[in-house]
Amino acid sequence: VVGLEGHEKKFAKYPTLSGGQLQRVAIARSLLVNQEILLMDEPFGALDTYTRLKMQDFLIDIWEKVHPTIILVTHDISEAVYLGDDIYIMSANPGIIMNILRMIYLHIVHAKSNATENLWIWFIILKIK
After folding, report:
1. pTM above the 0.85 mark?
2. Contact 29, 62 (CB under 8 A)
3. Geometric angle at alpha carbon 19, from 85 and 49, rounded to 5°
4. Strand, coil or helix: what is 41?
5. Domain limits, the chain
6. Which site from 9, 24, 66, 79 is most exposed, i.e. has the minimal number of CB atoms within 10 Å?
7. Measured between alpha carbons, how far is 50 from 98 in angstroms, rounded to an integer?
8. How many CA atoms lie within 13 A of 52 on its CB side?
């Protein structure tokens, strides 16, 4: 399920895991308890761009196989739009929730300012269908 099958010889020779492999193991461990809801707080934040994109696709693959509800926190709007069925935004003004069109507009307007970007916390929910 987690995409590490067939790497036994490699692991025998090099017994350390890459960042992406460690993330896959962490996701697999969380899936072992077979919970209906998976909470993820910036799970791809420390990964390089290539590994981050692979892990996003990997998360979608897992969701398609297991169908947990996933609540994922990210500051990356492109990640939120790519992964999320529903996206909720918390700003410096607590309790404000905007619809996705408004959120995308605000992201485009404020994308040039990292200071403004840091005011937003992006929530993603992949729902059980």
Report:
1. no
2. no
3. 55
4. strand
5. 35-126
6. 9
7. 30
8. 15
